[in-house]
């Protein structure tokens, strides 16, 4: 429910910005990668339906009627969205800057001092003292505050050149699957295809890009397998890097006893942008003195409950 509301909030915010962030409402197709996962899809569909989500259960014939591939079962969900996160991030900052937010880019925090009343973060250019600090430093937070709930993996993504005919891609839906490691696919407004996934442990060399070439090729092949009629799909660029997730699938948001006056936003997992929206609202309320009950669900000190996954 919180995720669904967060997508609505993100959409509202994107629509109020002075520049277009290209946020597009999309449906998503979540398919069973193999017949053993039909039960999982059915269970997930029943849960979502009972909670009032706009979902459809698709059998093999339903999938085949909409896409050039067939899968034994799938959930088709309305109310998801796609966005260019780089553009959205920059537009948010530009508008916030126009309203008086002071932004210091390229200012790495090198040291932090905590006193009884406040906290001071120091960079090579200067320092900032504040009553509260929110650490939204992404996966690199794990380098100085490792969390026992977090797994770090290597992940891969490719983007294709623009594709002439995307008409066989029903509603340009976001696509992903039950298999682990998973694959995911989406299109972009300029008619490219993005594919990603194949998460695996970091290569022994420690270099995320070590297997980038074969993994990128595999991602391209997977696009060809799903959409064989698209004959002009060519890779434009590829990427390999670290991806963090939590063992229970829930992000880490809130305080940590060793860091006074600090809050953390560690929105690890595949829907981190949605979690970021949740985190922003929860922490804004908390700092304003109205700490929501829900904040404890995301506690950095919670035990690992694998029933959540
Ligand atoms: C391949 C891939 C695919 C993904 N797909 C999706 C998706 O489809 N949907 C979705 O919702 N989410 C997705 N995510 C997750 C999403 O990208 C993240 O959840 C989101 O970027 C987190 O935002 P953030 O601002 O918390 O952290 P980040 O975007 O990681 O930003 C952290 C920032 O902190 C800066 N920083 C770090 N240390 C310091 C320091 N000491 N001083 C100053 N600055 C510092 C970094 O330079 C960086 O700019 C994906 C992630 C990956 C890797």
Quick one: how many beta strands? Answer: 14
Mean pLDDT: 95
* Portion in helices: 25-40%
Question: What strand line-up does the widest sheet have?
Answer: 2-3-1-9-10-11-8-12
Q: How many helices in DSSP terms?
A: 7
Q: List the ions, cofactors and other small molecules found in this model.
A: flavin-adenine dinucleotide
Q: How far apart are the termini?
A: 16 Å
SS class: alpha+beta
> CATH superfamily of the largest domain, called what?
D-Amino Acid Oxidase, subunit A, domain 2
Order of helices and strands: HEHEHEHEEEEHEEEEHEEEH
Q: Give the overall shape.
A: globular
Low-confidence stretches: none
Rg computed from alpha carbons, rounded to a whole number of angstroms: 21 Å
Largest sheet: 8 strands, mixed
Structure report:
With 309 residues, the protein is of the alpha+beta class. Helix content is 27%, strand content 28%. It has 2 domains: 24-82 and 150-246, D-Amino Acid Oxidase, Chain A, domain 2 (2-Layer Sandwich), CATH 3.30.9.10; 115-149 and 248-308, FAD/NAD(P)-binding domain (3-Layer(bba) Sandwich), CATH 3.50.50. The protein contains 7 helices and 14 strands. A hairpin with a 7-residue loop joins strand 13 (252-254) and strand 14 (262-266). Helix 1 (2-16) packs across helix 7. The radius of gyration is 21 Å and the shape is globular. The model has no long low-confidence stretch (mean pLDDT 95). The protein binds flavin-adenine dinucleotide (FAD). Flavin-adenine dinucleotide binds next to strand 8 and helix 7.
């Amino acid at each position: 429910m919180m995720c669904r509301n967060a997508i609505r909030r993100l959409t509202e915010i994107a629509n109020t910005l002075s520049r277009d962030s290209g946020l597009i409402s999309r449906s998503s197709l979540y398919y069973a990668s193999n017949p053993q996962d039909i039960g999982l899809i059915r269970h997930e569909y029943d849960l979502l339906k009972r909670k009032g989500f706009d979902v459809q259960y698709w059998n093999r014939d339903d999938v085949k009627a909409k896409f050039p591939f067939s899968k034994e079962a799938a959930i088709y969900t309305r109310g998801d969205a796609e966005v260019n996160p780089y553009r959205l991030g920059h537009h948010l900052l530009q508008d916030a800057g126009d309203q008086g937010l002071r932004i210091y880019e390229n200012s790495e925090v090198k040291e932090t001092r905590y006193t009884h009343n406040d906290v001071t973060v120091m960079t090579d250019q200067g320092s900032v003292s504040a009553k509260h600090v929110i650490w939204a430093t992404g996966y690199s937070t794990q380098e100085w505050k490792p969390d026992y709930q977090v797994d770090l993996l290597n992940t891969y993504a490719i983007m294709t050149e623009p594709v002439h005919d995307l008409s066989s891609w029903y509603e340009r839906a976001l696509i992903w699957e039950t298999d682990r490691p998973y694959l995911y696919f989406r299109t972009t407004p300029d008619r490219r295809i993005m594919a990603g996934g194949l998460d695996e442990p970091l290569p022994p060399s420690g270099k995320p890009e070590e297997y980038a070439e074969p993994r990128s090729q595999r991602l391209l092949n997977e696009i060809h397998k799903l959409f064989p009629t698209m004959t002009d799909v060519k890779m434009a660029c590829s990427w390999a890097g670290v991806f963090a997730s939590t063992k229970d699938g829930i992000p880490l948001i809130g305080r940590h006893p060793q860091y006074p006056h600090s809050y953390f936003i560690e929105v690890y997992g595949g829907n981190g942008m949605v979690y970021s929206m949740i985190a922003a609202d929860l922490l804004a309320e908390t700092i304003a003195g109205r700490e929501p009950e829900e904040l404890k669900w995301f506690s950095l000190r919670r035990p690992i409950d694998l029933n959540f996954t």
